[in-house]
Amino acid sequence: MCGRFASYNAYPKLARRLGVVVAEEGPPARYNIPPGTWITGFRQVAHNVPPEQLKLWWGYRPKWATGKAAQPINARAETVATSGYFKQAFARQRCLIPADGWFEWLATETGKQPHYLTRADREPIAFAGIYAEREDGSLGCVILTEPARGSAAEVHDRMPLILDDASLEPWLDPDLTDRETIRQVVRHLDAGLIEHWPVSRAVNRPGNDEDAGLINPA
């Protein structure tokens, strides 16, 4: 799964790479982003216009769903294209969420130990996401997940779906709606690029997201 992540350098790097039209100043650095908060993403609304910055609530409940409907933060990549809750957004409302890394918790004899997972080359990470309009008119999103690969599997059995550089533009392409075509042209990041290390348990406090030391090795 992906229940906490960091984004401090990734936004400007991915924005430049995608040619994003930035509507406002970029988001502040955050080192421990929890669900149920506002995050920043990128989308493309038409093929002939560049991608744009997007303000997203991390929690997905389409406006057509009832008030008691689930508000997930993740969606499984294996079933997102066929699930009644997600398939319309998968076809037409895909987004990228810039990150530098994410956190998972490993069970130990002394309790759950948080680990920080990131790219070994420190290049930005692009989470695959989908979004939908919420009842209040804002946009809510989920981050797609897949079975953990490479060293990430040492910490958890799931991980966010991270796209490789060649897949960023196809993922955002609003004219690309067929699920099989999307699966053929979109690839996840090479698992060999992922590394992790234990970090301070201070990351357990969701409100603590301004401390750059949270990602340092414990």
How many distinct beta strands?
Answer: 12
Q: State the order of secondary-structure elements, H for helix, E for strand.
A: EHEEEEHEEEEEEHHE
Percent helix range: 10-25%
Distance between the termini: 22 Å
Output the number of helix runs. 4
Top-tier CATH class: Alpha Beta
Main sheet attributes: strand count, strand direction, barrel closure: 7 strands, mixed
CATH topology label: hypothetical protein yedk fold
Give the name of the CATH architecture: Alpha-Beta Complex
| Binned strand content | 25-35%
- The stretches of 5 or more residues where confidence is low (pLDDT under 50) are none
Helix and strand content put the structural class at: mainly beta
Q: Sum up the overall morphology in one term.
A: globular
- CATH homolog superfamily: SOS response associated peptidase-like
Count of domain modules: 1
Mean pLDDT across every amino acid position: 95
Radius of gyration: 17 Å
Explain what this protein looks like in three dimensions.
- The protein has a single domain (5-215), classed as hypothetical protein yedk fold (Alpha-Beta Complex), CATH 3.90.1680.10.
- With 218 residues, the protein is mainly β.
- It is built from 4 helices and 12 strands.
Q: Brief overview, please?
A:
The protein contains 4 helices and 12 strands; from the N terminus they run βαββββαββββββααβ. The chain is globular, with a radius of gyration of 17 Å.
Question: What is the strand and helix layout of this fold?
Answer:
Elements: E1 5-7, H1 10-18, E2 30-33, E3 38-43, E4 52-58, E5 74-76, H2 87-92, E6 94-99, E7 101-108, E8 111-119, E9 125-133, E10 139-147, E11 158-160, H3 168-172, H4 179-185, E12 194-198
Parallel strand pairs: 4-10, 5-10
Antiparallel strand pairs: 1-2, 1-7, 3-4, 6-9, 7-8, 8-12, 9-10, 10-11
